[in-house]
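Chapter review: from sequence to fold.
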Amino acid sequence: MILEYEILKLVWWILVGALLIGFAVTDGMDMGVGNLLPFVGKSDEERRVIINTVGPHWDGNQVWFITAGGAIFAAWPAVYAAAFSGFYMAMLLVLFALFFRPVGFDYRSKLGDARWRNAWDWGLFAGGAIPSLIFGVAFGNLLQGVPFHLDELLRAHYHGSLLTALLPLLNPFALLAGVISFSMLTMHGGIWLQMRTEDPIASRASKAVMVMGTIAAVCFALAGVWVAYGIDGYVIVQQPPTDALPNPLAKEVIVEAGAWLKVYDTLPIAILAPLAGFAGIALTMLFSKWGKPGLGFVTSGIGMTGIIGTAGLSMFPFIMPSSIQPNSSLTVWDAASSHLTLTVMFWATVIFLPIVLTYTVWCYYRMWGKVTVDEIKVRSHSAY
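The token string follows.
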């Protein structure tokens, strides 16, 4: 069966979004645990307990991030090229922060020196906090538009020097989006710790869930008001047929106040995304308080899905708007790869994704159970 080009473009928008959500739910959990490590763990044994809750899974979870990057490269090469130009310094910062994770997990417990272990604990914190903040900052900048344009050969040119490229990205709205990302991932890591550990670690993690959930909900609401009244969106006035060969410069785009909210008028069901965001956070906090972290972990994933989905649906069909030349904005319809490429990738996903998901579930099943201080003391020379 061969899917139509227009359908494949839409399918890959959904699949890339699913990969980003999968990354947030899995590797976001690891980063959230790292964010809490120096604060929830009060002793070396407690910090080893925290690390061992994610130790067997973090590297597999990070594959979601790598896969999402590869999918963007293959499905939306123009977006990949423009993003790596515009967000180059931010991505390098994320990359350098992520270096702390594999090294920290593997070498933190190799020496018994308290200073050595404490230094790596803060390294693991940086490896979670910096990426979780920067990912939100990136979404915040996409909603405002990125300063790039396409020339007649469709080459992307970013406006700004390499040395100062990071500073404009750290604007107030983008930082607010970064706080949303940081707090929701930390809440997610907290509910995971509450589920996988015993008191006193679990009770401290529950308190973190309440604090971070409140911050995430308040900032998400504030961002919604800001988008509605303070940020102009983008509207396509004229474009070629959506099944045409990609040519971003063939369309006409205007900037219009409140444009990012139009999807809720044209597609009322889209309101379920922000509602899921708020409901997921609220239910996670309630389940944490009621001592049902398993259900809280599920609702936390629903909340993150709603928040990420809200950003994606609000911008649709735009992927990377241009703030200086709106007609250069990249969309689902004109930034995609060829029909053949999308088709081959689609069937590869249909075949291999169920295999990956099955193996992932099996790994969690085989390594399930609470991690305790007594267990850590018995395995004093284990990897973590």
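Two observations follow directly from the output. Residues 145 and 323 are 5 Å apart (CA to CA). The first strand starts at residue 148 and ends at 150.
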